[in-house]
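[step 3/7] fold_predict: job queued, chain A
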Amino acid sequence: MGGNLVKLQNFKRKDNEIIRKFIEFRKAGKPETGKRLNLSWSNWGFGPEPLDKSCARLAKHNVRYIELHGNLYGPDLGYRVKETKNILDAYGLKVSGICGMVSPESELASSSPVVRQRSIDYFRRHIEFAHELGGEYILFAAGAVGRPQKYDNSEFQRAAETIRILGDDFLQSGVKGAIEPVRADEVSLVHTFREARELIDLIDHPGVRHIAGDVFHMMLGEEHIASTIVEYGDMLINLHLADSNRRALGTGALDLDLVIMALYLAGYNREECFCSAEPLGVGSNPYQAMHELQDPAALDELVGQTASYFYERESELLDASTEELEQLLQGGE
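[step 4/7] structure written:
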């Protein structure tokens, strides 16, 4: 090869493309408003911990938004609007949205009409709840988490039909319905952003037009996380964050800088868009985390590490000079 540099791998070429676009973005004096990304936290991974303790932890580490566990499993279960408002106000937090829980007992793609009706009722409770609390979105997987084996070849169509029934509820409330692509180890359908858009097109309702991403699932389902964020930025309403080990940011191999650059390139630093941390650890059924008591000290460390690292990397990129950003480019092309 002589003095020639080694040719870059495909993903590194895509990395460079994002970095160059971000350099030009910064040269143009952007972001013009100075508005930073909204960091939120999906609290169902805290298990059955009381909400006030969770909110105190988030406020301590300067996380100002919370993605609430969709725990209204029945009329007598889950959060109550007035009590929840009082707790949020006490700690200066706002609701970003609701993380809808989809299980084999209550799912949109089920072959059982009884199960689908149960899921419709579940989401109607949460649409009203989110509206009362000012939440922007409710996210949900198209199929049950923890059920990677498909029922049949009609799941996709059933999911679309069931979600379409909820379309008017979403539209009238002002709460956005958002499909979350989830890795094939956990669900039986909709594993990529492209498949989420196909489902949204099939639903064909203005109340459900958004995607809720998750960088952990994107590592497995997408060719390039940052490029996907830029491509689907107009549909993205929430992005779940965890490192490559599905633990705290900064403890694995996720290139968080590229994710942040892509979000700014997509114009994601808007009031209605959120980055919600969701470090759940590995496993094919992460829903187990919602039922188990967690170590408060470990949760405090988890939030502190994630929040501080996210804010640090965001500031590094926004405060860097052109010359410093150019150092991120990799040669060999």
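[step 5/7] annotate
The chain has one domain: 10-326.
The domain at 10-326 is CATH 3.20.20.150 (TIM Barrel).
exit 0
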